[in-house]
Specification:
By secondary structure, the chain is α/β, with parallel strands linked by helices. The chain is built from four helices and five strands. The longest helix is centred in the middle third of the chain and has 23 residues.
Amino acid sequence: NNILVLVDGSDFSLNAAKVGASMADKYGSKLTLMHVIGKSFSKTTMPDLELEIAGLRAEGSQILNNALLSIGKSENEVELILSWGNPLDIILEEAGNKPYDLIVMGSRGLGTIKGLLMGSVSERVSRSVKCPVLIVKELA
């Protein structure tokens, strides 16, 4: 059994991580946490591009680490995926390439203003993947 949890740093996604971890523990499933950096760049950012990319990667890693802390797990117990691109496309690609039995995500996220994840993405993911999707609405 494989469970994919999508995190973006919002309280909703951290709660989704807790729900996903609880289910993984209960059913002996492998847990994967995934964060997608959805930032795009224009020519005006080119001089500082490397610095901005490094900052976004560090922020993405911190989001994954915060999710790990919130579920009380270590990197040895959970697979972490940090990806770059259109969140919906990357999530659908990941779900299509690996045999996930369940995808867990928050109903709301930080939105596209910060170039991260969730929001209407949760609805589109649930309509597009073959496995069940659990959308966590309430904060624990």
